[in-house]
Write a structure and sequence with these properties.
With 265 residues, the protein is of the alpha+beta class. 16% of the residues lie in helices and 43% in strands. It has four helices and 14 strands. Strands 3-6-1-14-9 form a five-stranded antiparallel beta sheet, with no helix packed on it. Strands 7-11-10-8-12 form a five-stranded antiparallel beta sheet, covered by helices on one side. It has a four-stranded antiparallel beta sheet with strand order 4-5-2-13, with no helix packed on it. It is globular, with a radius of gyration of 18 Å.
């Protein structure tokens, strides 16, 4: 399936910014699951200082804001042909060993609620069935809601709130899988929705590692495994590692953000 993506993120500051840096993870990589046919990133209000691959092989831009800017804009336009329809990313490994993906982070630290969900895995006849059951249990316990959480919400906090978005569902999943000793990681990217072109934000899902299969994806929010409608962008232990954009700035300026996203066939 060939997908076209147009994604604009605009940061507006109510006072000039003397210094700011952004790490931008918005460049997909070629793999047996997707072929990048064209891709362009345009920066306004800043300049690219460095392009590199981070510890998870995410293609990353380090962008410095122009001195005294009041707006930073990142425009992405591209086309990707996808080839995966079964949710299995497979035995694809980078420099990080599997044990690394059993480690918790501040955002995925398991509490009582996550540990209770992790027991779902013990009741299944095999690990794969258990992971599907876990995915369903998470969305039942924390239905999709855009009002209960924010960017820094942890897995346990989202579960306690009783709702969340795709970021929260993915972090709850990886947290619970790690409680059971299963390597798990967070994935950010894009999803073509069948009922709309315009979207509010990019997407996130989780992957767990199974002996024999390798990495297997689970989109908890939609109760499915990733298929040809998904474009993979970044990987990490949690939403911070795979965030499309993250950065720092100096000064007292308040920030507002506007996102425009279209994903279509």
């Amino acid at each position: 399936m060939k997908l076209r993506i147009q994604h604009t993120t605009k940061y507006h500051y109510d006072a000039p910014v003397s210094y700011g840096l952004q790490q931008i993870r918005l460049i997909p990589a070629n793999s047996k699951h997707q072929t990048v046919q064209s891709w362009a990133v345009d920066i306004k209000g800043g300049s690219t200082e460095l392009e590199f691959e981070d510890q998870y092989q995410n293609k990353t831009l380090l962008v410095k804001a122009d001195p005294e800017t009041t707006e930073l804009s990142v425009d992405v336009v591209g086309e990707v042909e996808t080839h995966c329809s079964d949710g299995v990313f497979g035995k694809v490994y980078g420099t990080a060993p599997l044990w690394h993906f059993r480690q918790s982070t501040p955002r995925t630290q398991a509490g009582r609620g996550v540990r209770k969900l992790a027991k779902t895995l013990q009741k299944a006849p095999d690990i794969l069935d258990g992971l599907h059951a876990l995915s369903n249990a998470i969305i039942d316990a924390a239905p999709y809601s855009m009002t209960d959480t924010e960017a820094h919400t942890t897995a346990e906090e989202a579960l306690s709130a009783g709702g969340g978005v795709c970021q929260d569902h993915a972090q709850i999943f990886v947290s619970a899988a790690r409680v059971a000793g299963i390597p798990a990681r967070y994935i950010s990217g894009y999803l073509m929705m069948n009922d709309r072109v315009d979207q509010d934000a990019s997407h996130a899902w989780a992957e767990a590692h199974l002996d024999g299969l390798g990495w297997v994806g689970f989109d908890v929010s939609n109760r499915i495994c990733p298929d040809e409608r998904y474009v993979r962008i970044a990987t990490g232990l949690d939403s911070h590692d795979a965030s499309p954009m993250s950065g720092i700035r100096l000064g007292s300026a308040r920030e507002s953000m506007i996102v425009s996203l279209q994903v279509q066939q």
